[in-house]
Specification:
The protein is α/β, with parallel strands linked by helices. The protein has seven helices and six strands; from the N terminus they run H-H-H-E-E-E-H-E-H-E-H-E-H.
Length: 199
């Protein structure tokens, strides 16, 4: 039995399609949106439409941008010899917040996942291979997630890039800052030992 008018039901269904949004949260969002003044609701809808119509991928790094080349790739102060490979655009934001990386990025837009029917051809791997073969690249940092899909993707790409003679590195894993060793799992502790460095 439907409790709401069909337009409200459709709005709730659209919010439910978003990742991490359940039925109750979708209802709250729908009712919040309906309580907004018409101008605010129209501005919200216009922002979605505008983003969908004007945002595309950078022709170099595949990150989201509204210009042909994103601000990071067009920044002359960036080190163009180092490319950091990430799974999603949000990973670029996370790494940029550290203010520790001054190279360029390459966004794959996913990870190899046979269970989800995502293969290498579904990702932006071809563009990365082209960059590695053409550009003056000295190092490629694999910064995919430390899960099964991320590891498989990193291994697949590193095998593809081996013939180019580029140094391929992987992000170190370890104990989080503020964490306690007693709560870390064996794999994390093992990776922390492997990735140790001199101080």
């Amino acid at each position: 039995m439907k409790f709401f008018a069909p337009p409200v039901e459709r709005l709730i269904e659209q919010f439910e399609r978003l990742p991490g949004i359940g039925h109750k949260t979708a209802q709250r969002l729908a009712f919040y949106l309906l309580s907004l003044p018409r101008e605010d609701a129209e501005e919200f809808a216009a922002a979605i439409t505008d983003a969908k119509n004007t945002v595309f991928t950078c022709k170099i790094c595949q990150n989201l941008t509204d210009s042909e080349i994103c601000p990071i790739c067009s920044d002359p102060s960036r080190d163009k010899s180092i490319i950091c490979v990430v799974t999603d655009p949000k990973d670029v934001v996370a790494l940029e917040r550290t203010r520790e990386f001054s190279g360029l990025y390459h966004v794959l837009h996913g990870a190899i996942s046979p269970l989800n029917h995502i293969g290498p051809d579904d990702l932006r791997i071809r563009e990365l291979v082209l960059r590695a073969s053409e550009d003056d690249v000295s190092e490629i940092i694999m910064a995919t997630n430390p899960d099964t899909e991320g590891e498989a993707t990193a291994m697949y790409i590193s095998r593809l890039l081996k013939p180019f003679g580029v140094k391929i590195t992987r992000l170190a894993y370890g104990v989080p800052v503020g964490g306690h060793l007693e709560f870390a799992d064996e794999v994390t502790l093992g990776r922390a030992l492997e990735g140790r460095r001199e101080i």
